[in-house]
């Protein structure tokens, strides 16, 4: 993937880029082969690796969507799906049933934490994009609920080297402090003359 990206960057013009793009084989054929392997080895522990690839690397193809459904049914209680589950934050509300199934059926902390994080992130994005206050408030409440569960029960869980609660904290802070009508957080500092001041000193 990195080599392909470098070749695209090095192309002299758009014509060369399009020519190179057309030479890259579609992932759909590989997705079909991978799904056959998954279906033939459902009782093998390592089969989750194939499901993970289909969900994250072939999501736009039919076999990727089939794998997504399997993630919420056959593999909802499996260990080793946390990275794929976290990536579902980019799938929006259609991924909600899958994430809820993982929370209900999975006993592994990493997978539960990933599902709570992804659900919180999905509702945070809906809150951020909502055009009306009612929808925004509903999405905000759901995001707060999932992020609070994450922080209360899985605050130290990391996925791919990143602590999920740190990401959740940033979104929580934005929802609570950086929206129209919110009181600005306290800021302390010194002015150009070295005199200390606080933002609250200038509130009316």
Can you tell me about this structure?
The protein has ten helices and four strands, in the order αααααααααββαββ. It is mainly alpha-helical and 204 residues long. The chain has a domain at 82-182. It has a two-stranded antiparallel ribbon with strand order 1-2. Strands 3-4 form a two-stranded antiparallel sheet. Helix 7 (96-105) packs antiparallel against helix 8 (109-129) and helix 9 packs antiparallel against helix 10. It is globular and about 70 Å long. The mean pLDDT is 89.
Number of strands: 4
User: What is the radius of gyration?
Assistant: 22 Å
The N- and C-terminal alpha carbons lie at a distance of: 55 Å
The secondary structure category is mainly alpha
Reported for the largest beta sheet, the result is:
2 strands, antiparallel
Report the uncertain regions: none
H/E series, N to C? HHHHHHHHHEEHEE
- Tell me the fraction of residues in β-strands, as a range: under 5%
- Counted by DSSP, the helix tally is 10
With strands numbered from the N-terminus, the spatial order across the biggest sheet is 1-2
Mean pLDDT across residues: 89
| Shape descriptor | globular
Residues in helix, %: 55-70%
List the helices and strands and how they pair.
Layout: H1 2-10, H2 14-23, H3 27-40, H4 47-57, H5 62-71, H6 82-87, H7 96-105, H8 109-129, H9 133-153, E1 158-159, E2 162-163, H10 164-177, E3 188-190, E4 196-198
Antiparallel strand pairs: 1-2, 3-4
Helix pairs in contact: 3-4, 3-5, 4-5, 7-8, 8-9, 8-10, 9-10
């Amino acid at each position: 993937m990195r080599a392909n990206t470098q070749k695209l960057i090095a192309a002299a013009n758009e014509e060369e880029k399009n020519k190179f793009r057309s030479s890259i084989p579609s992932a759909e054929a590989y997705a079909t082969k991978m799904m056959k392997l998954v279906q033939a080895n459902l009782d093998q522990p390592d089969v989750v690796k194939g499901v993970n690839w289909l969900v994250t690397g072939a999501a736009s193809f039919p076999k990727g969507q089939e794998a997504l459904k399997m993630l919420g049914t056959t593999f909802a209680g499996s260990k080793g799906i946390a990275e794929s589950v976290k990536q579902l934050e980019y799938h929006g509300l259609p991924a909600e049933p899958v994430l809820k199934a993982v929370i209900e059926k999975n006993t592994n902390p990493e997978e539960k934490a990933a599902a709570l994080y992804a659900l919180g992130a999905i509702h945070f994005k809906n809150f951020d994009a909502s055009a009306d206050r009612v929808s925004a408030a509903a999405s905000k409440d759901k995001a707060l609920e999932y992020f609070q569960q994450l922080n209360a029960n899985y605050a130290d869980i990391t996925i791919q080297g990143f602590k999920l609660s740190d990401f959740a904290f940033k979104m929580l802070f934005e929802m609570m402090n950086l929206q129209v009508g919110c009181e600005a957080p306290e800021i302390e500092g010194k002015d150009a003359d070295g005199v200390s001041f606080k933002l609250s000193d200038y509130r009316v």
